[in-house]
Write a structure and sequence with these properties.
Layout: H1 2-37, H2 45-60, H3 72-79, E1 86-92, E2 95-101, E3 105-109, E4 115-120, H4 129-143, H5 150-173, H6 177-192, H7 201-213, H8 217-229, H9 237-248, H10 252-265, H11 270-282, H12 287-300, H13 305-317, H14 321-334, H15 339-362, H16 366-393, H17 397-414, H18 419-434
Antiparallel strand pairs: 1-2, 2-3, 3-4
Length: about 425
């Protein structure tokens, strides 16, 4: 145990020793600048710009010279005498990485051994270094009445902007969307500074998009609207995310108007179309209006089974069961594993049987009464095949039990017709439905 502890201590000291010279140099430069600004150079533009660059150097130190795309061997050359303390496999957003740990950072390699990104786990100083650097450059601009530091300020703020974007992308890769959005927003702040006065519309969009994924919907609305105002709509995607943000905040009027605007400008955007279809179906809007959107969506995606299912659902609500059945069948023809289509066909026939039963209970004419009973039983039998297929495809236990309950009821009804055939089937689905 003592040997292990001693080895760990030696390893740490070795790593620290390898980095100490450079680290000491940037820290001394930082402290020197800070001391000067506390004295006679408090209003010296060049001193403030120099301070901003020194802070950036402190920030850069743990990952100095690292570049995305380097191989493991190239990274070892770049890091010289720095030694890793171990590695592990990690899955991030569905991708597998080899994560190599160092004293102050973690490096993420893809399966081919290529550096994808890194996370600094320990900076030389604990404060928010990038914000401190921005404030220093802002002071430099404030005192630069003659504009002599414009070139240096431009370089400093541009570098700062890029570091924020790198932080944003790293956070995005790790699934930390809130932090990603904040970093993208900080890069915009750099671009908005009078020295640069240049805002990247893509960054504005991603600030809103990452806020959306973080469920920070008010922030998402601010930046997505801004992206649209700047002409960045991503073929309608910006409108789609903006509309969903309004929906999440329970603002139905803004949700609808945003979708409508988006559809007007980008009628082929499926995200907008499907949101419109769902909105109108949920709110029982004029069916013809819904059909208009559904048919456009179907033209764009003729092999999307859910779009034919959506149209079938509208026809079913309108009472046209024949048309509804035709489209439910179309949905499972496109995708034989689409259990929603099978379920809807089964429930449609089951509902028709229920209607026939209700009519029969009120019918006084014997001939009509027995005709309705025949219709009831015929529809129940028609419901069996789609329900059976749905039962085989669906995996959710509760949903499976629900389908079993339908089948149990149907087979129980049919026992009188053929006890030997239907009793075992009734018992099978009775047992399954009662396990729920």
């Amino acid at each position: 145990m003592k040997k292990i502890f001693l080895f760990a201590l030696i390893l740490t000291v070795t790593q620290l020793g390898a980095q100490n010279k450079e680290a000491d140099a940037v820290l001394k430069a930082y402290e020197k600048s800070k001391t000067e600004l506390a004295g006679k150079k408090a209003q010296d533009a060049a001193a403030w710009v120099s301070f901003g660059k020194n802070i950036t150097s402190v920030y850069d130190q743990p990952s100095k010279n690292l570049l995305i795309g380097l191989s493991t061997i190239e990274v070892k050359v770049v890091l010289k005498d720095q030694r890793s303390s171990g590695s592990e496999k990690q899955t991030v957003d569905g991708e597998e990485y080899e994560v190599v740990h160092y004293l102050d950072k973690d490096l993420y390699y893809d399966p081919n051994g290529i550096l994808s990104f890194w996370v600094v786990t320990k900076h030389l100083m604990p404060q928010d270094l990038l914000s401190e650097a921005f404030d220093a450059f802002a002071k430099g601009y404030e005192f630069d009445a003659k504009g002599s530091q414009k070139k240096n300020l431009t370089e400093g703020l541009s570098n700062l902007q890029q570091r924020y974007i790198t932080e944003a992308m790293t956070s995005y890769s790790l699934g930390n969307y809130s932090r990603s959005s904040q970093s993208f927003g900080k890069s915009i702040q750099c671009g908005e500074h009078p020295v640069l006065n240049k805002i990247d519309t893509i960054v504005v969009y991603y600030t809103g998009l990452t806020a959306f994924h973080a469920k920070e919907f008010e922030r998402a609305i601010t930046y997505l609207n801004r992206a649209i105002d700047m002409g960045f709509a991503q073929d309608g995607a910006t409108y789609s995310f903006l509309a969903e943000s309004y929906k999440a905040l329970d603002q139905p009027e803004m949700f609808e108007s945003t979708l409508t605007k988006g559809f007007t400008k980008y009628p082929s955007n499926q995200g907008i179309l499907i949101s419109l279809i769902n909105m109108y179906r949920e709110n029982d809007v004029d069916p013809e209006k819904v059909m208009e959107f559904i048919h456009v969506a179907q033209e764009n995606e003729p092999n999307n089974e859910s779009l034919f299912y959506a149209e079938a659902d509208v026809w079913r609500k309108l009472g046209n069961t024949e048309k509804a059945l035709e489209l439910f069948e179309k949905s499972v023809e496109i995708n034989p594993n689409y259990f929603f289509g099978y379920y809807s066909m089964g429930s449609l026939f089951y509902d028709l049987a229920y209607e026939a039963q209700n009519k029969a209970s009120e019918e006084l004419d014997d001939a009509k009464y027995y005709a309705l009973l025949d219709e009831l039983e015929a529809n129940l039998l028609k419901a069996v095949e789609p329900f059976e297929k749905c039962f085989l495809l669906i995996e959710d236990p509760d949903a499976k039990a629900e389908i079993a309950n339908y089948l149990k009821t149907i087979y129980y009804r049919m026992i009188g017709k053929n006890e030997e055939l239907y009793t075992p089937l009734y018992e099978k689905y009775r047992d399954i439905s009662e396990k729920k």
